[in-house]
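Form 12-C: Joint structure prediction
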Amino acid sequence: MTRPSTPELLHAGDSCLVIEFGDTIDLTVNGKVQQLRRSLEKHPLPGMLEMVPTYRSLALYFDPIATDTDRLLQTVRELALATEDFPSGGGTVMIVPVLYGGAEGPDLQTVASHNGLTVEDVIKRHSERDYYCYMLGFTPGFPYLGGMDETIATPRLQNPRTLIPAGSVGIAGRQTGIYPIDSPGGWQLIGRTPLRLFDPDGEPPILIDAGLWVRFQPIDRGEYHAVTEAVASGKYRPQISPCKEDKR
Amino acid sequence: MKLAIDSGGLLTTVQDLGRWGFQGKGMPVAGAMDRQSLRLGNVLVGNAIGAAALEITVLGPKLTVTDGEGLLAVTGADLGLTINNRSVPMWEALFVTAGDVITFTGPKGKGCRAYLCLSGGLDVPLVMGSRSTYLRGKIGGYRGRALKTGDCLRTNAASLVQAGIGFACPEPLRPLFAPSTPLHVVLGPQDKAFTASGVETFLSASYVISNEADRMGYRLEGPAIEHTSEADIISDAIPLGSIQIPGQGRPICMLADRQTTGGYTKIAVLASPDIGALAQRLPGETVRFEAIAFNKAIDAARVEGKAVETLLALRSSYRSRSRPLQTSKSGTWRIHVDGKPYDVSWELLNG
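Section 2 - Result
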């Protein structure tokens, strides 16, 4: 882990300021991004519109007409300097139930064969670690997860699929992720979650947030149907549980 | 008011000022490409500046008012507005009523996007705080897509419609669509990823808008801009109007429907008013960039804000000489036909 450098304030036009904490993807740098985000959420500055936390920076959007930009720059600089060096997370993890294999995970066997493992090994290795959500992007609700066991890394499909159903859980190289909406893609699909990561009419519309930990929990077909129904009727409440180890 | 869509035109979508608040969750903002034209159009018809309106691209739709009455104003590019086959002025609140047919005969000059604003604003469902259509995500606006033949729109109720008839936006308050004017940019956030000659190329060369130009972004053609080393960065946020330079060195200007994050270096970001100015240009037109300081860009944004305030103030003191509907048995109304005033006397028969 690299030690973060002094935060840098970068202009991104007249309506956005980027606060960069380093040039690496790691928990310490991202922890600072999340700390700054949380302190600005707690004490929003006049004119602030919204924030976009990413791997190593926070973008702060503001209304150029309604903002005292000198004050904004000064306050943000002070808050950024006050962030501390500890990994983010706060010790909570969201449980994402996954039905592995079958029609929902057509590439599970490929991932096992590629790594000389059994299907059960892949499920175990994929579901026994907690993953950190560094940021969302690419499509609404798509989480960039870090921390996958490299012994199940598998290259993308040679020939991408034209339609991957929402909820599909996949592996691409050393990354794992969940497709929030139906979309084309080349990830190796190992299972599917009945949760809806993106539902424009939902509250909240997007389930996973940057800075949260995610744990995949293997479920069987019966549980898959039960959760699907609970989600459809609006009765499902996401399970939040403590992390397996202290992330700090 | 209700409207039937007799034909949708090239690309007609419902837009407001965009779906802000969810970029951190990966949700693109969408919204009007030329925000100032939308704001001013809404002021003309007495709406809140961010009310939903139609964004019309190059070839306009054909609409029939099927029920009710209200004010209509078209701003932005001149795409040949007609009502009942007669040319009518843009940038003015016009009274429309059931039976009126609104068409566009084609672009008349500069600009490619017009905004058709109706009093009350378009009544489409609010999705995540906005009525804007996000085409790739198929959400918002009218069923998440562009308008087509057979669609029906309606507006929210509006008050004081009669008092606003004939209110026009003075020319100095309207945005300029001058194709030869350089677009102003603030350098950064990744201008240090380019060589001095790379930045020099960016600020001196003439670029041409390629055919890959849509609501998401405009790819430009022209001299390559030199990076110091890598063209890729660890993915970060993509602000509205940012100018990405991928490895091949040609700029991509990121507009309303841009994705929220990306991994290309961004050499500069367009000043707010110049985002609308670029969005009014078409493939084949040229683009040059001129760097301005952050504070100058803020000043430019404030000039736009001032124009909206001025128009709001003018409207609040404007009273059309057309009288409001009343229940007396006779009276005189002043109406405007082709911009000329006429007094029409009326009385209730057999009353």
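Section 3 - Comments
The CA atoms of residues 109 and 225 of chain A lie 23 Å apart. Chain A has a mean pLDDT of 92.
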